[in-house]
Amino acid sequence: MPAVVETGKTKGVTIVISPLLSLIIDQVYNLNKHGISTLCLYGEQEAKEKKNVFSELGKSIPGCKIFYLTPEMLNRSTKVASAIKRLHERKQLARFVIDEAHCISQWGHDFRPAYKELCNLKKKYKDIPIIALTATATSRVKSEIMEILGIQNCKILQQGFNRKNLYYEVRDVNKKEPKILLELLSNYKNECGIIYCWTRNDCEVIAKYLKRAGISAEFYHARLRKEVKIDIQNKWQSDHLNVIVATTAFGMGKC
């Protein structure tokens, strides 16, 4: 919302740093679909797409409202660093938003080491606001995030872990004959969903089982080529595919 409603002192491009490529692609797709001009950069993008992104960011007043990056792209690309610096010089850098901010703390270093380098943001851009977001932070982790980012005196908005809009149910499932999945999916015909599995092999077995039952499904895991994963996700987003069967890495950025 702050990126779209330009009020107060900040204006220009909001930079969102996220470790989740699948989430980045999903959010960019949906924001553009709703008329909010959004860009992203990641390593496997076509050269033409990257050129268009830098061209837009280089405009005196970019039309882009939100710009998504992985922490690795932010830290390792001199071209990205230069584009952000020029945005700042033109007063077109609105704010940094750090998603999955618990990765900044000691807890998250093994998962995404590049998050440690985000401590440099406040050093380079002292006048630019930083928003850090996470649903996974103990009191200690919260303190570490604020200390590392240099935002100790920031405004803190916090709520409990219990989300009233979510429903949890536990049932036993036979992997070889997961008929319960067909029972559950029959209640949501032609709707989209995700089935999470422990292993890549489980994903493939379950996806094949669902296909034989006439359900539009594909498996999604780290051994698939990047372009294949993006194609599967695009089909899922555009309702050409109903079910993605994925490892838990689908929600953790490791895919």
Question: Approximately how much helix is present in the residues?
Answer: 25-40%
Count of domain modules: 2
- Uncertain spans: none
The overall pLDDT, averaged over residues, is: 87
The run of helices and strands is EHEHEHHEHEHHEHEHE
Q: Assign the CATH architecture of the largest domain.
A: 3-Layer(aba) Sandwich
Q: Order the strands across the largest sheet as they lie in space.
A: 2-3-1-4-5
User: What best-fitting shape do the alpha-carbon axes yield?
Assistant: globular
Structural class: alpha/beta
Distance between the ends: 28 Å
Name the CATH class of the largest domain.
Answer: Alpha Beta
- How many helix segments? 9
Q: What can be said about the biggest beta sheet? A: 5 strands, parallel
Our Rg estimate from Cα atoms comes to 20 Å
- Name the CATH superfamily assignment of the largest domain: P-loop containing nucleotide triphosphate hydrolases
Strand element count: 8
What fraction of residues sit in β-strands?
5-15%
CATH topology-level name of the largest domain: Rossmann fold
Task: Give a quick precis of the structure.
The protein has a 5-stranded parallel beta sheet, sandwiched between helices. It is α/β, with parallel strands linked by helices and 255 residues long.
